[in-house]
Amino acid sequence: MQQEQIRRSMRKKIMEKNSNQPLNQAERYQYLIGLTEGKQLDADYRAAFYILSSVPEMFEAAAKCVDHEGITFDKIKRLCKGKLEESQMHLLSLAHNVFAWNSRTSPTPHELSRLGYPWLEVALNAIFISGGNMKVQIQKNEKGIPELLLDVSSYEKTKQFHERFQQMQNDLDDEFDEEMEQ
To answer: Other CB atoms closer than 10 Å to residue 35's CB: what's the count?
Structure first.
C-alpha cells in the first residue's frame, strides 16, 4: 500500500513537471531510486537505473516495474516491445545483465561496438558503474535543476596504482639486468 502511495505521489510530480518540460536523466534516475523505498543499492542496481533512465520510453516502462523488491525486467521488455530502437533494446538487455549477471544479454561485443553515440557511451558507463569504477552523483546546477555527474575517481586511483606498480616492476627488471651484467 505504501509503495502505491509513493508511486502516485511521484507520478503526480512527474505530471506537474511534464506540463512544463520533460524530466531529464538525473530526475528519472532519482525517481527510480525513490521507488526502492530507501533500499541500500549496490553498483549493479545503480548501473541498471543509469541505463533505464537514459531513454524516456524505457524509463516510463521501468517506473511501473521497480519496487523495494527489485526490477521486473521481463515486464519492462514486454512494455517496451515495438517502442524502442534496436540499439535501445540492446541497452535494455545490457541493463538486465548488469543487474542480474546470470541473465542472457542479446548484444554481442560486436553489436555493442556499433551502438554509436550516445548509446555506446551509456553502455560503457553502465559497465564502469557496475564494476565499481564509476559512481553516479546528482548535483543541482545554477538553476536548481538536478544534473547527473559521473565520478571516475575510484577508476583513476586504480589506474594510478597500476602505473606505479608497473614502474616498480620496470625498476626491478632494470636492477636485475644491471646485476646480471656485472
So the answer is: 20
End-to-end alpha carbon distance in the chain: 80
Q: What is the pTM of this model?
A: 0.80
pLDDT digits (tens, 9 = 90+) for 67-119: 999 999 999 999 999 999 999 999 999 999 999 877 877 788 888 889 989 99
Given a contact cutoff of 8 angstroms between Cβ atoms, the answer to whether 165 and 157 are in contact is no
Which runs of E-coded beta strand occur in 123-178? 135-140, 146-151
Determine the Cα angle at 123 with ends 63 and 84, to 5°: 50
With CA atoms as reference, report the closest residue to 122 among 29, 30, 11, 36: 29
Q: Which positions ≥6 away from 128 have C-beta within 8 Å?
A: 134, 150, 152, 155
* Residue 32 to residue 46: CA distance in whole angstroms: 10
Nearest C-alpha neighbor of 75 from the set 50, 92, 90: 92
Cell numbers representing residue 22 in the block = 520533460
Rounded distance, CA 19 to CA 21, Å?
Answer: 6
